[in-house]
Give the backbone structure.
Amino acid sequence: MSTIFVYTVSVKNVTLSVDGSVLERARELARRRSTTLNQMFRDWLIELTAEPARRDRYEQLMARLEHVRSGGRFTRDEMNAR
């Protein structure tokens, strides 16, 4: 006996207006990347909406490291010493 799982995701359609030459350049770029314009747009939206989360994580890290002090200013050679 086998079990089959089916996962569904609700998606929304988006209608955009764009200059025809821009659309053709975007389609050509998608072809060169072996993907679709839809997938490129979805990837762009994911990246766009991830920025605030990354910024928040960075600010939280800096707040946690607030107590860390370097001990002073370093010369370029000191910073690059290995």
The radius of gyration is 23 Å. The mean pLDDT is 89. DSSP finds three helices and no strands in the chain. The CA atoms of residues 41 and 47 lie 10 Å apart.
